[in-house]
Every structure is written in structure tokens, then in C-alpha cells.
Amino acid sequence: MSSTRSARVKTSAAPAQKNTQEAAPKSHAIPWYARVGMRKESEYLFENLSTLLLSGMDILQALEGVKNGIRAKRLVQALNEIEEDIEAGKPLWSSLERTRLAPQHITALIRIGEETGRLSENLGMIVDQQQKDHLFRSRVKSAMMYPLMVFVLALVVSMGIAWFILPRLSTVFVSLDVELPLVTRVLIGIGEFISKYGSIVVPSIFAVIVFIGYILFVHPRTKHWGQAMLFTLPGVRTLIQQVELARFGYVLGTLLEAGLPLTHALQSLHDTTTIRRYQMLYDHIRQGVEIGDSFQRCFDSYAKMRRLIPIPIQQMIFAAERSGNLSVSLRHIGETFEVKAETTTKNLSVMIEPILLVIVWGGVVTVAFAVILPVYSLLGQGGF
Fold first, then answer.
1. How many CB atoms are closer than 10 A to CB 113?
2. Which of 88, 201, 275, 380 has the most crowded Cβ, counting Cβ within 10 A?
3. Does 119 map to a domain?
4. pLDDT tens, 50-82?
């Protein structure tokens, strides 16, 4: 590293020796809200840091090389502080913890890597884990994207018909001297209402839908309501269970294999998942392990355990814990359910498509009947 930076570190340390009451320099710790959009930058950081360390670079050269490819100013400032800490003799994990640059389990893995001389290998595990977590999240999102797009498109088309077409049809049908069917009268009423108040009603409907979606699936304190709704859908519930079991096996197995204590690994597993039911399960297991309980006792004492982890997988975990091969078995579980989740994601779109087509067909048939029935009634009375 350049001599100017070393000089800056030494000179900044001198006043501290003269006046111990002086406040410590401000740390560019990255707050949680600033880390939301930095996931790709973080993945780039650890991926390239692992590669450069494996190539033989020392940690300072590797950090300087990685920093040149990062655009986020907060992240660059944090890396500058980390470099200064390392030049002052501090370990990498300590600087990461102080700057809050990485989650707790990643900091723990780096600490173990530094203490055991396996830093580059543990960084590789971190990169692999981040990629797996991104894959797990994307599979659930991709399974939900198709039905969401169809729903939005159907809603837009329905609003367009109600706003522009139904008012014109109502004008025609009202002028006819014929008794209108119930479905036609309902659609005419909707059309007249939207014609008068459409500029208020339509934006309000979309705003309410967005607000409900935010409350059910985004807001941290209420999104478990939306998750509970998803668990009532058979195909979606299966996909969520498979994704969570893949994460459970891979993350926990990887952390245990790297040497992280079981309680810390369970806490890290809790932090990586977003499904509240599984977060509560992992908390329950961690608390049981802390007082000396086995996995079997923790599982047996948890209500509705079968809905979260199937009995064959539970038996596999019990056997692996007794034989001392828990990390290997967990990783095997993760690989197995990763393949199953990929298959379920593909099949779910095929299963949902006919259901959505039936819903759209029902709407089209309803409008068609509302238009055709008055015409048949008029023909029956000899109106033409």
C-alpha cells in the first residue's frame, strides 16, 4: 500500500495519544436501509476478494483491486476504513463488524477463516451461499410472476371495458323497449357508475390493490399474513417448503462444515430466510440446542412440525446427528430439494395456466351473455 496512506494512519493516531478524551473518528458504518440496493455490489465484493486471495494476493492488495470496480460511495468509504484498520493490525472480520458491511453469519465465517488460515475458502463458501440464496428467492418470484402479470392484464382490460364500452352499451339497451336480464342490468349499472366516477374509482382501485399488496407481502410486520395466505395454496405451499428445505440444508450444512457453532449457524439461518413460520422454527431449535436438546427433541416439541419438515427428512436429520455426519447430510438435503424446487417451479406455471384461462373465459362469457341475451329477447318479441 502507498506510503501516503501509512503516513495518514500514523499521523491520525498521534493526536489520540496526546488527548485520550478526543472522540474517535466517525465510522462510515452502512445502515440497513443503504444496504438494500447493494446486494449485487456485496456479491461482487466477496466473489472477487475470494478470487484475488486464491491467486496469491495479500488482503490489502485484494481489497484495493476490488474497490476499483465498486460504484457505491458508501461501500467505497467502508472499504477505505477496512484497509486502514488492516494496516493498523486489526483483522478483517473486526472491520466488517464495525462497518456493518456484512451480515453476522458472514462476519463469523470470515473470522473462522482468518483464525484457521482458510479465509479464501470461506469467502468462496460465502459467495456460493449468496448465489444460492439469490436462486431460492428468484424461483419463488418467478413462480408468482406469471399469475401476477395475467391478473394485472385482466384487471386493466376489465377496467377498460367498464369505463369505455359498457356506458355505450347501456345507452343502446336503455333505448330498447325490452326487459333486460339481470346480468345485463348489473353491467349497465357498473358502466354508468364508472362513467360518472371513473376518474376517481379506477385510480382508487389500483391504489388499494397496491396498498394491500404492500401490507400482505412487503411490510415487515404484516407480511406474514400474505405468507399464511400463500400456504393455503397447494402448489405454492409445496414450492415454499421445498425452497426453504433447500436453504435449510445448504446454509446450515455449509456453516457447520466451515466450523461455525450450531447455535450461531441456526441464528444465521434465521436471518437468511424471510418466511416467518420457518424463522419461528429456527428460533425454537436454537433455543433448544442452547439448553442441550437434540434435534429430535426440538422437532417433537414443536407444533405442526410435519407441515414444515416432512417426517422422512426429520428421520434423516436425527440419524445424521447421532452418527456425527450432520453437515454432510444437510448439504445432501439441500441439493435434493434444490432440484425438486426447480421442477416444481416449472410445473407450477403449467398448473396455474388453465386456472387463469378459466377465470378469463368466465369474464368474457359473462360480458357476451350480457350483450347477446337482450338481442335474443328483442328478436323473440319481433323487434327486428
1. 24
2. 275
3. no
4. 788 877 788 888 888 888 878 778 788 888 888
